[in-house]
Write a structure and sequence with these properties.
One of its GO terms (molecular function) is isomerase activity. Belongs to the EIF-2B alpha/beta/delta subunits family. MtnA subfamily. This is Methylthioribose-1-phosphate isomerase. It contains 10 helices and 16 strands. The chain has helices spanning about 40-50, 55-70, 75-85, 95-105, 110-150, 180-185, 200-215, 225-230, 255-265, 300; strands at about 1-5, 5, 10-15, 20-25, 35, 155-160, 190-195, 220, 235-240, 245, 250-255, 270-275, 280, 320-325, 330-335, 340. Strands 8-7-6-9-12-15-16 form a 7-stranded mixed beta sheet. Strands 13-10-11-14 form a 4-stranded mixed beta sheet, covered by helices on one side. α7 (about 200-215) links the parallel β7 and β8 (about 220). The longest helix has about 40 residues, at about 110-150. Bound molecules: 5-S-methyl-1-O-phosphono-5-thio-D-ribulose (MRU). 5-S-methyl-1-O-phosphono-5-thio-D-ribulose binds near residues 55, 163, 165, 170 and 242.
């Protein structure tokens, strides 16, 4: 999407084709820094340490990581080792396993010398497909937004979102943000309430950066503000992304999503989850079966970018990074095939 005045994807191959180029998202919005991943170990570190993040982008990065591993050694042993290394880099987003399985299935029947080229080609295709999926999600979401805006045509459509499910979390356009960008471009007045999304502040740092870059009116709010805004009629719909939707429709997404869904339900605000098929995990029965990433307590006790510690006591900090929103709280799933109502 728009960055420095040009349209760019969040991940591409390096100029020589042998690596992957990503933004170091730990530096945003202060510094726009592109980095080149040159090995499977680079890719694993970039995912684990969240230089790159967001379910679809994690998958795309892992796909290139596996291709880079095969360029060094195309054997079955190297494939299996790199697959496991990358799979364990982050536990919750199912797109990671999906992408690794895509690459492994594409290369396993091939002679070892042909595997790297085939893996890079498949990784490129995964990226192209992600862009197309998000465009389709956006088109269906645009129709939904038109309907929602028609209920109050005299004022902007107020959307609340949590975390970053934007182009920085995907290859382009984003999932939850795709309809926002399309609606804005189509002349529908959209205003976005951006949850800051403690503790890593993906909303305040990344979603706000994206929306500002695209000229979409938005307001960053403390995570605790959403319930009040919904109760006072200032939110027309909530739309979030997801790291995994399980067979029963439960939605695993950034910690705090569940509370937004509860507040939305209590106030009759529609709650939509945007996802491509690559985030649907039919093999996991319910949200209770999804591994919830536990990240460092330092993310709670320290604020990124300012170097300041916000708790000076010796208290422990816990940091579950995701939660599960039960399917019963979801109004609809916004997919590349259209809006699927929750049962
Ligand atoms: O920990 P993160 O920043 O990777 O979490 C990202 C999210 O929770 C997103 O909402 C999700 O991955 C969907 S991205 C389209």
């Amino acid at each position: 999407m728009k960055l420095d005045g040009t349209h760019q994807r969040s991940i591409t191959r390096t100029a020589d084709g042998a690596g992957a180029r990503i933004l170091d998202q730990r530096e945003l919005p202060w510094v726009v820094k592109w980095v080149e991943l040159r090995s499977v170990h680079d890719a694993e570190v970039a995912i684990r340490e969240m230089w790159t993040r967001g379910a679809p982008l994690i998958g795309a990065t892992a796909a290139y990581g596996l291709a880079m591993a095969l360029a060094e050694d195309g054997s079955d042993a190297a494939l299996d080792a790199a697959y496991t290394l990358l799979l364990e880099s982050r536990p919750t987003a199912v797109n990671l396993k999906w992408a690794l399985d895509q690459i492994a299935a594409a290369v396993r029947p091939l002679p070892t010398v042909d595997r790297a080229a085939a893996a890079f080609a498949r990784a490129d295709a995964i990226c192209d497909e992600d862009v197309a999926l998000n465009q389709a999600i956006g088109a269906h979401g645009l129709a939904l937004f038109r309907t929602l805006h028609a209920k109050h045509p005299d004022r902007p459509l107020n959307i609340l979102t949590h975390c970053n499910a934007g182009w920085l979390a995907t290859v382009d356009y984003g999932t939850a943000t795709a309809p926002i960008y399309l609606a804005h471009d189509a002349g529908i007045p959209v205003h976005v309430w951006v949850d800051e999304t403690r503790p890593r502040n993906q909303g305040a740092l990344l979603t706000a950066f994206e929306l500002a870059g695209h000229g979409v009116p938005h307001t960053v709010i403390a995570d605790n503000a959403g319930g009040h805004l919904m109760m006072t009629g200032q939110v027309d719909a909530v739309i979030v992304g997801t790291d995994r939707v399980t067979a029963n429709g439960d939605v695993c997404n950034k910690i705090g999503t569940y509370l937004k869904a509860l507040a939305a339900k209590d106030n009759g605000v529609p709650f939509y989850v945007a996802l491509p098929y690559t985030t649907f995990d039919a093999s996991t029965a319910t949200g209770a079966d999804v591994p919830i990433e536990e990240r460092s307590g330092e993310e709670v006790t320290h604020v990124a970018g300012e170097g300041g510690r916000i708790r000076v006591t010796a208290s422990n900090a816990a940091n579950p990074a995701f939660d599960v929103t039960p399917a019963r709280l979801v109004t609809g799933y916004l997919t590349e095939r259209g809006v699927v109502a929750s049962v």
